Amino acid sequence: MVLRVQYPSIMAQYNLSPETVAVQDEDAWEIPRFGVKIATRRGLVPETLKPMIDKRVTLKRILKTMEKADPRRRRYKSQADAMKNLGIVSNGRMGFANSIFGRINAFEAISYIGRKIILQARAIAEEHGFRVLHMYVDSLFLAKDGATTPEDFRAVMDEIEAVTKLPIDLEDVYSWIAFVSSRRDPDVPVSNRFYCRKSNGEFKIRGLAQRRRDTCEFVREVQVLALNVLGQEQDPKRLMNLLPQLVEIVKERCAALQAGMIPLEELIVTQTLSRELSEYEASSALRTAATQLEAAGKKMNMGQIVRYVHTRGKPGAYAWDPPAAPKPNMIKVLHYKELVLRAIWEVVQPLGVTEGLLKDWILGKASYIHVGDFPKVKELRFDSELPLFAKLNSFEKKLIQIV
User: Could you tell me the pTM of the whole model?
Assistant: First the structure.
C-alpha cells in the first residue's frame, strides 16, 4: 500500500507563501527547530491552493466509486491530474532561482515540514504493526500480513491525519511491489524506480524504460509485454515460475527485429537538446542527428526535439526528419537488442537475475542456469514439480534441480 502526503496541503495548512515566511510580525509563529517565523495573516499561495485542494479531494473520492465505463471519468481524472500538476508547480516554483514570486526560505520550510510529517507517519504506521518498505519524498510504502483491502489501512490513516492535521491519500493497495536497484551496483537501491502490481494485474510504474521519453516504441512495447507476464501472478513467491514465458516472448520480439519485421517508426528515439548544439563536446547519437538536421538547413536550438534511429557503422545515428528516410539494412540491430536487454533487466533484476545471465538467456544460447551467475538461487523454493526453465525448449541440454 502507498500513502501519500500532498505538499500543496502542507503549504495551505501551514500558510507557507513567499510573503509569509521569514517575517518579523509580532504574532508570527516559529517552526520548531527550524528557526523561521511564519505570519498568521493568510498568504496568496495558500489561499489560491486551498480551493484546488478541496476540489481535487472531492474528485478523487468520486473517481474511486465511479465505474471505469462512466463517460465522466476521463474528464474528472483530467481535472484532478491538472490540479495535482498545478500543486507540484507551486511547490517547485517556490525554490526556483528565477521565479518572480518565489522564496527559497519558503521552499526549505515546505521540505522541512514535509520530512517531519513523513517521519511522524512512519512512526505511527510502525506502531500499528506495519512494515515500512520504502519512503520516497511524500510517500510511504507499507506492508502488513493480512492487510489486503483499503479498510485494513483505515485506522492507521485516521491516526496519521489526526496527528498531522493533513489529508492522507491512499493511493492503492498492491499485490506486490518490486524495487529496482542501480544498474552500476545492484546492491544500491534507487528511490524512484519501482513497479507495483494492482489487484487487477495492471501496474503503477516509476523510473522504468517505458516511462522515459527517450525510449523507442519497440523497446517500450517489449518491456510492457514482460510486465504483463509478471502481472498474471498475484503471489510474488511464484514470479520465478513465469520467467520461462517472459524470456520466450522477449526472444520472439528480438527475432522479429533481426528479421526486419519491426517498422522503422517503432525504432525512432526522441530526445530534446538540453543546450545549444555548439555546446555539446562529447560525440553522441543526439549530437550527430542534430548536426545532420542543421546541415539539411534546419536551425537547431536548445529545447528542440530531435528524432533519430541508431545505425550501423559511422556516424552511428541517422536523423529521422530529413527527406530521405533510412533504409532497413542501415539499422544497428545489436544496439536495439542491448536496449531491450536493459529494459528487461529492469523488470527481472528484483527477482535476483543478473544482467550477465539475462544476456545469456536472450542474446546467447545458454541451455542451463549458472549457479555462480545466480547467487540467490539456493534461497528459492518453487511450488511446481518441474525445476526452473524445465518448460523452455531451448534449455534442453542440461537442467539443474533448484532446491
Answer: 0.79
